[in-house]
Each structure stands twice: as C-alpha cells, then as structure tokens.
Amino acid sequence: MDIKTIQTIFISLLQGLTELFPVSSLGHTVIFPGLFGWGHLLNDTGCGGKSCFLPLVVALHLGTSAALILYFWRDWLGFGKTIVQGVIDADVRRGTEAWVPVAVIIACIPAGLLGVFFEEKLKEIFASPILAAGFLVCNGSFLFLGEGLRRRAENKMAKLSPQERATYFRPLNSLTWWEALAVGFAQAFALIPGFSRSGMTMVGGLVVRLTHEDAARFSFLMGTPVILAAGVLEVPKLFHQNMFSLFQIVLGMIICGVAAYFSTKFLMKYFEKGRLDPFAYYCWGFGLLSLIIFWTGLRPY
Fold it and tell me: What is the pLDDT of residue 272?
C-alpha cells in the first residue's frame, strides 16, 4: 500500500470519527498533516492551481452526509411527508412538525452565504495548522461557556415547580425563525478550521433552551444540507487532477461514512445525559499541545 493511500485512510478515519464530535473535524484534518510533515497535502496546486486538499475533505464530508441521511432516514422521510401535508393543509407554522424542516433550512442560510462570499479568505485560513490549533482552543472555550450557561439554568430550575421545569426545555418545533437563524450563524463558525460545527450549533441549541438530545439532533440534521451543497461546489475539482486516485477518494468516503455512522450512534446516546465539558478539556489540551509543537518545532518526524 503506497503512502498516499495510507494518508488518505488516516485522514478519512480522522474525519469520520471527529465530524460529529464537537471537536472540529476540519481543525483535526488540518492540524495532523502539519504535525506529521504532510504539508504537501495542504499546499499542492493540482486542482487548477489550487490545493486539492479542500475538495478531498469535502468529498469525505459526503461520506459523513450519507451516514447522517442513513441514520436519520426516518426524520428525512417524515420531513418530506409533513411538508407535503402542511402545504396541502396550508399549515406550515411554528409548533407543528412541518416547521422542523423549515427551521433546518433557515439555519443553513448563514453558512451558505458566508461560504460563497468569503471562500478565498477561508481557504487561506484552511491552509494554516497553527491557526487551526489556536481556533481549536477557542472552540473549547465556547463549549465550556455553553455548558456553564446550561448548568446555571439547571440550578435555577431546581427552584421551580415540576410543571415550570417541564416547560423550560423546548421542543425543536417551537423555535422561532430568528432563533433557527441564530443557531445557523453559530454553524457558520465551523467554516474556520478549529471551530466545531456540531459544537457551535449544540451550544446555540442549548442557549435557546433545547435539551442536549434535541440540540444534537438539530445540529446533525442541519449539517446534512450544508455538506451536500459544499460537495456540489468542491468535489468536481477532483475530476481533473492526479494527486488522488478515484480509488483513494471512494475508499476515503466509505471509511469516513462508516466511522461517522457509529460516531452519530454513540453521540445521540451520549447526549441524552452527557455534557460538553469533556470535549472542551480535550480541545484545550490538544490545541495547546499542537501550538507548543508548532512553535518549538518539536514535530514527531
């Protein structure tokens, strides 16, 4: 097995395992090539004078997207039925199940617009492992802050009656359009390597008083259209290059998709009770360690 295939398998497995965890898969796929001396992956110019690494990572994201569609197929099927029924009944409004896919679409708008208008600037940031490590530390701080706000709310709820506590947490279909948009702006941070899409959107969901489980579900659902849209724009750039073979790309997508499916399965169970704190500590630790290695030049190669 040649070194390029080994590197592709590693990046694919890393992408699939970290995409749904709130630790920034994009940050990891930028930091590790810097740590391992795989700079050619980030700096090649095989795709029309630009790096092929971003199109490759987006292609791997399509594997993640397929895993999310497979895992949440009942949700997507239900979305289609409720939208059609809502249109027939003229009842697409907040508080109904037909509103959930509308909220998902609204939440995707900020990331889509920022990705289009700031594409070149974001690609410059994409190529910097040091910046990705720094933003990963910032991501940990956001996770810690979001969980801290959640704990404050829980302490406050302890003083409320059982009926008042039951109404504090909101169902997903109760979000207003501007709250869905606000969570969407949180998702837009993930265009910067080091900021986690799932982490930022879950914190946004917690702020608008969704449960951990509903915040995770909303995060995973809104990620699918954004990933698919990015794939339409970036993946065609891989068709006319010789850095990655079709076999390597397809193999990477499959590995990434399988890893993402099991990550989703684990996290949906974890977020029934689990918190964001452990992920914040990890982001701080790994981000700071990476910064020290980059600054001192003590790379493991």
Answer: 76
**DSSP-H helix ranges across the chain:** 3-18, 25-36, 39-43, 53-71, 73-89, 99-117, 119-126, 129-157, 162-168, 177-188, 197-207, 212-234, 246-270, 277-296
Which pTM was predicted?
0.80
Among the listed residues 157, 155, 210, the one whose alpha carbon sits nearest the alpha carbon of residue 182: 210
In angstroms, the CA 68 to CA 259 distance is 11
Strand partners, 47: 50
pLDDT at 140 over 90: yes
Length of the chain: 301
241 and 41 Cβ atoms separated by less than 8 Å: no
Q: Is the pLDDT of residue 84 over 80?
A: no
Lowest mean pLDDT among 125-139, 149-163, 213-227: 149-163
Q: Pick from 151, 150, 125: which is nearest to 138 by CA?
A: 125
